[in-house]
Amino acid sequence: MRELAYYEAKLEALREILAADERVHFITEIATGFLGLSARRFQFNEIAKSFPDRVISPPISELAVCGLATGAAMAGLRPIVDLITASFAFEAWPQIVNEAANAFYMSGGQTRAPVVFHLLHGLRGAGAAQHSHSPQAMLWNCPGLKIVLPSSPRDVKGLLKAAAASDSPTVFIDHVLLFEYKGLVPDASEVIPFGQAEIKRAGADVTVVATSLMVQRSLSVAERLAKDGIDAEVVDPRTIVPLDLETIMASVEKTGRVVLVDECHQSCGVAAELAARIAEVGFDRLKAPVRRVATLDVPVPFSPPLEEFVSPSETRIAAAIRAAAR
Amino acid sequence: MLLIRHFEETLIGLHDQGHFEGHFHVYIGQEATGVPALSCLAPDDHIFTTHRNHGHLLARGADPARMYAEILGRRDGYNKGKGGTFHIAASHLGFHHTSGVVAGIIPLAVGAAYAAKARKTGQLAACLFGDGALEEGAAPESLNIASLWNLPVLFLCENNGKYGAGRAIGAVQSFSMAVYPLIDLPKVYKINARQVDGTDADAVHQAISEAVERIRRGEGPQFIETQTVRWPGSESNWPIVPVPTKIDLAWDVSSVPQKFRDWYASSDPVLAFVRKTVECGAATRDELAEIDRNAVERIDKAAKFALASPYPDPQEAVTEVFA
After folding, report:
1. Closest to B272 in 3D by CA, of B244, B253, B298, B259
2. Lowest CB count within 10 Å: A326, B181, B207, B243, which one?
């Protein structure tokens, strides 16, 4: 095991993926791609230089680029498309949800489209309404897409490798505010299979199910609340399609109290679907109402205090856990 | 071409008899485009087509029985009944994905061409779409990329808008497209483009084979617009067959109802090809009548096969969502 920053683990995964398989083409805006506008973005240049024929900068044509990658996948490549900001997926929506997602099913199992769409989602600070979306719940409503939401250095590496190996269209949804988190990453190459949730913090009192950056935020809150005698268990599904409901329910069985933390807008968000599934199979285990902490149902505002107010902040997460624990 | 014509005419009958539901689009009037065009492709080329795909699949040798089964939602359909008329795929023939969104396949075909170039396979991707597809944003975005990256893709735009509904009478120009002629659009993106009469099988064959040669030589994307006169049977919401096509119609259209007679006399590509074949001595009327009888027989058998094919087990609906 080594300690790596999240962004280092992510770069390492991409480098290994490109080196291992010539069918992988990475389509990105080289200047700002993969690591977004983070301070670390220049570190991507070394990968771009190492694979000049397979790291490609396309025109600003998200729709055609996502279709191109899907068509290339149908014809034998394994492309990874970097849409950078998740909000830009809306420009490509018809190709992602209506062509790629449907291809295998609609063809009666004839046509595989092993394409990865990489997105950076969520409130990143100053993104305002058009660069802050978390489209994972909308995508979850489109059968045929696998949806990955990493939250730690080890996970981002192992899950990106699994995404690159997936035979189904896969949406890899990352968060730029995770990049500086540090964690242990195995020396040997590791592929983390889809559909395996991880207990990120064991606890006895309240189950907190969180994804992506919300995992780190929930862990931080859990440590603070532990001092007040509230022992929260933090469960990270890591992929929502497929979803490991079993691990989540095992935790719910134990605690009987659930808080769902998710950066989608609250209505019909990831938290909403998780709440429904937990209630469907575990209603009799619940000792308190299921609580959601999500982005408020308004467009995301620019001004920092406004953005903080609508976000699933540590303050709101802590309040929800306290309420659930009562 | 006769096989396609009889396939579609019989299909309209199957719909009228209530054997399948939903909207569908027939290839009648465009047979002299698809048949010669697809004959110019290699067996391993990639082909992407649209809601108006029946003629393309048949031209490539698809089994009409399995196509009917698909259109009727039966178990023996190419897509096991999960696709229907809009989405018939036959990957062994190069039809990976057939989209019901008019420009949906254009980026996909450009992507398959990208893969062929990257893998140096020598394949090309053929993208078969209608004139309306150029009105969606995916089309210009894809033309730009295909040209920029010099990709081996054939854009075949089948403009069936001549005298058609919603079109300016007497012109191929659409009421809904500012670009006229349509080939000005690919030309803006520095793509070699030409128009050809889509009812003239020889002209289409020559244009497409030249375009394919250019693509194989590495000259990048080529764009062909074929122009056909819209079949008047599709003017109403649901297509109607004014008269079943027979070889004899090539010389005598008096049995065709007045309203449709002009089209069969002067714009029907199948009858025009029949006349030309006899006139140039390539086949006699009797020989063509024999070919026609065989086509009718094959289509009858295909329809019977599809009608006898069972519906899929309802549980199949929740399978094969993921590869």
Report:
1. B253
2. A326
What is each CA distance from B188 to B111, B140, B193, in whole angstroms? Answer: 21, 10, 10
What tokens does A71 get? 């068509």
Q: Which residues are A232's β-sheet partners?
A: A206
Rounded to 10 deg, the angle between the A6-20 and A153-165 helix axes is: 20
Give me the number of domains chain B comprises.
Answer: 1
Residue B160 lies in a domain: yes
Q: Tokens standing for B105?
A: 């396949």
Q: Does residue B293 lie within any of the structural domains?
A: no
What is the domain range of residue B192?
2-8+15-21+29-240
Q: Are A182 and A5 in contact (CB under 8 A)?
A: yes
CATH number, position B232: 3.40.50.970
Whether residues B115 and A71 touch (CB distance < 8 A) is answered with yes
Cα–Cα separations (whole angstroms), residue A236 to A148, A244, B101, B134 = 11, 10, 37, 45
Q: Of B80, B105, B148, which has the smallest distance from its Cβ to A108's Cβ?
A: B80
- Determine the Cα–Cα distance for residues B94 and A62; give it in Å rounded to an integer: 26
- Amino acid, res. A147: I
Query: Is the bond preceding B181 in cis, omega lying within 30 degrees of 0?
Result: yes
The per-residue pLDDT for range A180-207, each reduced to its tens digit, is 999 999 999 999 999 999 999 999 999 9
- Asked if B110 has any chain A CB less than 8 Å from its own CB, the reply is yes
Separation CA A271–CA A206 (nearest Å): 16
ipTM of the shown complex: 0.96
Summarize pLDDT for A215-229 with one digit per residue, the tens: 999 999 999 999 999
pTM above 0.90, yes or no: yes
Across residues B112-131, what is the average pLDDT? 97
Q: Which of A54, A74, A93, A167 to mutate to test the interface with B (most CBs of B within 10 A)?
A: A74
Residue A111 is nearest to which of B81, B91, B137, comparing CB atoms?
Answer: B91
pLDDT digits (tens, 9 = 90+) for B25-70: 999 999 999 999 999 999 999 999 999 999 999 999 999 999 999 9
B275 within a domain of the structure (yes/no): no
What domains lie within chain A, and their CATH numbers?
Answer: 2-185 (3.40.50.970), 198-325 (3.40.50.920)
B61 lies in a domain?
A: yes
- Among A27, A105, A145, most B C-beta atoms within 10 A, so best to mutate, is A105
B104 to A95: CB separation less than 8 angstroms, yes or no:
yes
Residue (of A67, A143, A145) closest to B101 by Cα position: A67
CA dihedral B220, B104, A109, A196 (to 10 degrees): 100
Distance from CA of A53 to the nearest CA of B (A): 8
Report chain A residues touching chain B, CB-CB < 8 A: 23, 25, 53-54, 58-59, 61, 63-77, 79, 94-95, 98-99, 103-114, 143-144, 146, 167-168
